[in-house]
């Protein structure tokens, strides 16, 4: 999927917000500046978050709960995680069942983390736009067709 500019990246996140459910995991991969946080901000905004969501780079996990958002969301940035075993302390595997888990830099969690996740990967095109590819698991196939 082609996302020609920042507005299109934000709009994609907003469309995605209409499809997520509590218990879903959505992963966002790509190089620095590729638009991972822009998609997350669009999703959070569409779920009702007033203002711009901060990047969870330093907090690692930024929770959002009603009434701040329509449904609970855990916005996670694993960039600073060096060892997948460090994730045990965050309790994400249990917490995901009570929220949407939106994970930037999921590769830091190891290859076997969240096999049922909607895996989104962004790359920067030569013209400055973004190219989004998706690995769509069975639980997302019907929903993905509506994006």
Automatic annotation (TrEMBL):
<dbReference type="Pfam" id="PF02367">
    <property type="entry name" value="TsaE"/>
</dbReference>
<keyword id="KW-0819">tRNA processing</keyword>
<dbReference type="InterPro" id="IPR027417">
    <property type="entry name" value="P-loop_NTPase"/>
</dbReference>
<comment type="similarity">
    <text>Belongs to the TsaE family.</text>
</comment>
<keyword id="KW-0460">Magnesium</keyword>
<keyword id="KW-0963">Cytoplasm</keyword>
<dbReference type="InterPro" id="IPR003442">
    <property type="entry name" value="T6A_TsaE"/>
</dbReference>
<keyword id="KW-0067">ATP-binding</keyword>
<keyword id="KW-0479">Metal-binding</keyword>
<protein>
    <recommendedName>
        <fullName>tRNA threonylcarbamoyladenosine biosynthesis protein TsaE</fullName>
    </recommendedName>
</protein>
<keyword id="KW-0547">Nucleotide-binding</keyword>
